[in-house]
């Protein structure tokens, strides 16, 4: 049995159904409507028909009808609630995924995992206790990461409508209430885990991330540090370069493996290199967003100095950092460490230079793509850091 849903729309020519037999020319139009059925249109309307061209139009109440095979009317509707639910669920998940800013979450996961490998001295250290300790560090840190990026979106809705209209708060996919609920929930869960796991360096990392993430975004007197280029870069540098390296190294070394804390060559390299890299990310992230930042009074370096100057400053800073990494690798007493460090950083520096030359600085899409490429270099660096010995 074939069911067709007839869309009902006001037309000047005829109506759809009436308690009396329909005029012949109206039934022809009704058949035409049935061939272009729209199951989503179910609004009852009032339309008119004219049974005799010489008489006035008469009003009738019409509603959607379904036609069974053979021409008889039926009021049944196709069952597609399950499909609508799945579609809505997928859309909500996609919006939540964009709300979390996944490139920052990936950076957090790779960074903490890489630093957690630095205290290991041999293969036997890769025990179940190590992986449990790593998991205890990752989960609350990811939640805190979502809090920081989510809070920033709550206070940047108007700016993001210009700079990042695809974000769910700026696009209207999430309401302000939904955003506040998500941010509050992940913050409470993060701190609850930090207290429950009884690791002081882990809790300190969460607390510092919370404080700096809050003063970076919140619109209050003496806060909203993102309005000032130096303070904004400082927030990102402290968290990404210092807190991540030191706090999670101590967490694994002392509170998971039970060893005394000592500064190592690889840890010192990670802190210094990530200070440079985090500064570059803090500067470069504003280059594609100059239009919205300038309009809303965000005095980033890109607004003050110009996009091109900041762009090449960032590229040159990364090339200098890679050059320093080659020197560190060449001075290593371990041949495998020397090979991995030299070859890896040579490859990354070459990719950076080739890609940087092809970017159109006047094109926002090209700049945004290159910014995401810098994040990929950031991930790759954390893969090389454990080989620095």
From TrEMBL:
Keywords: Membrane, Transferase, Transmembrane, Transmembrane helix. CDD domains: PT_UbiA_HPT1. It is a multi-pass membrane protein. The keyword Repeat does not apply. GO terms for cellular component: chloroplast membrane. GO terms for molecular function: prenyltransferase activity. It is found in: Plastid, Chloroplast membrane. The keyword Transferase applies. The chain crosses the membrane at residues 129-154, 174-195, 202-223, 229-252, 264-284, 310-332, 339-356, 368-388. Gene3D superfamilies: UbiA prenyltransferase. Belongs to the UbiA prenyltransferase family. This is Homogentisate geranylgeranyltransferase, chloroplastic-like. It comes from Prunus avium (Cherry). The lineage of its organism: Eukaryota, Viridiplantae, Streptophyta, Embryophyta, Tracheophyta. The gene is LOC110762569.
């Amino acid at each position: 049995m074939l069911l067709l849903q007839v869309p009902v729309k006001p037309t000047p020519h005829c109506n759809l159904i009436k308690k009396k037999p329909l005029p012949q020319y109206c039934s022809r139009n009704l058949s035409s409507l049935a061939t272009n059925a729209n199951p989503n249109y179910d609004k009852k309307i009032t339309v008119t028909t004219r049974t005799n061209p010489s008489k006035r139009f008469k009003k009738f109440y019409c509603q959607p009808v379904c036609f069974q095979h053979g021409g008889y009317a039926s009021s049944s509707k196709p069952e597609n609630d399950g499909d609508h639910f799945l579609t809505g669920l997928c859309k909500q998940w996609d919006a939540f995924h964009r709300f979390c800013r996944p490139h920052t979450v990936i950076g957090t996961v790779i960074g903490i995992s890489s630093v957690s490998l630095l205290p290991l001295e041999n293969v036997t250290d890769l025990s179940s206790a190590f992986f449990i300790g790593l998991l205890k560090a990752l989960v609350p840190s990811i939640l805190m990461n979502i809090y920081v990026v989510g809070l920033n979106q709550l206070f940047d809705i108007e700016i993001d409508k210009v700079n990042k209209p695809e974000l769910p708060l700026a696009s209207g996919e999430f309401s302000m209430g939904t955003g506040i609920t998500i941010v509050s929930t992940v913050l409470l869960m993060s701190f609850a885990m930090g207290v429950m796991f009884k690791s002081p360096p882990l809790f300190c990392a969460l607390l510092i991330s919370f404080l700096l993430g809050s003063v970076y975004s919140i619109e209050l007197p003496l806060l909203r540090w993102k309005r000032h280029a130096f303070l904004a870069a400082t927030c990102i540098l402290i968290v990404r370069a210092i807190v991540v390296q030191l706090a999670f190294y101590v967490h694994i070394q002392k509170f998971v493996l039970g060893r005394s804390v000592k500064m190592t060559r690889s840890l010192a390299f990670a802190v210094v290199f990530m200070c440079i890299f985090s500064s570059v990310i803090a500067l470069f992230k504003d280059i594609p967003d100059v239009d919205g930042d300038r309009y809303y009074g965000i005095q980033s370096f890109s607004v003050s100095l110009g996009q091109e100057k900041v762009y090449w400053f960032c590229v040159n800073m990364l090339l200098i950092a890679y050059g320093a990494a080659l020197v560190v690798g060449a001075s290593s007493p371990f041949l495998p460490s020397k090979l991995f460090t030299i070859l890896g950083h040579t490859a990354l520096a070459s990719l950076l230079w080739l890609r940087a030359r092809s970017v159109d600085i006047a094109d926002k899409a090209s700049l945004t793509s290159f910014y995401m490429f810098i994040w990929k270099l950031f991930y790759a660096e954390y893969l090389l850091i454990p080989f620095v010995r």
